[in-house]
Design a protein that fits this description.
The protein is α+β, with helices and mostly antiparallel strands and 163 residues long. It is built from 7 helices and 5 strands; from the N terminus they run H-E-E-H-E-H-H-E-H-E-H-H.
Length: 163
């Protein structure tokens, strides 16, 4: 009998860490979140480079700045109240082998959020290349463009759909 994966609630654990850090007033600090289970070392760091430097296995962590960029405190509070309410299928956390070859046949665009401090533009560009998109557009917004720049993002999505 297979034991359930220990990281099935990683997203929820990560959201709890972010919620607690925001609630304690640690805006702008960094957390090193383990990819395996969504936990941390329990320390918040003043810089991303400090968070990386203190990790034994730096490539096995995601580095999250608290809160997400460009949100007002009220927007961040409203966003965090909704965080963790979605239930991802547990299969998403177990998969390791994703294929992308079939995606070239599907017309697609990718919008890079240039002010994203959670997922830098260079990584977003790598995702766009991996997904074999036809067009890359750019928005001057942080990680949560749908919350901080909804009108501009909606207009861009309409433009991309009309391409």
């Amino acid at each position: 009998m297979n034991a359930p994966p220990v990281y099935s609630d990683a997203a929820r654990r990560c959201s709890d860490i972010v919620n607690n850090a925001v609630g304690e007033g640690h805006r702008g600090w960094w957390a090193a979140v383990r990819l395996s289970d969504g936990g941390t070392d329990g320390v918040l760091y003043a810089t991303r480079s400090a968070a990386i430097a203190y990790q034994l296995h730096e490539s096995q962590c995601a580095y999250v700045q608290i809160p997400w960029d460009q949100m007002t405190p009220a927007e961040a509070e409203a966003f965090l109240a909704r965080l963790g309410q979605d239930d991802w299928p547990s299969d998403v956390f177990k998969r390791r082998h994703w294929s992308y070859g079939h995606l070239a046949a599907i017309p697609a665009s990718y919008i890079v959020c240039e002010a994203d401090n959670v997922l830098p533009a260079v990584w977003q560009e790598r995702f766009a290349a991996r997904l074999q998109v036809d067009h890359v557009a750019r928005i001057d917004a942080g990680h949560q463009a749908m919350n901080t720049q909804p009108e501009q993002l909606a207009a861009m999505l309409l433009d991309e759909a009309a391409r």
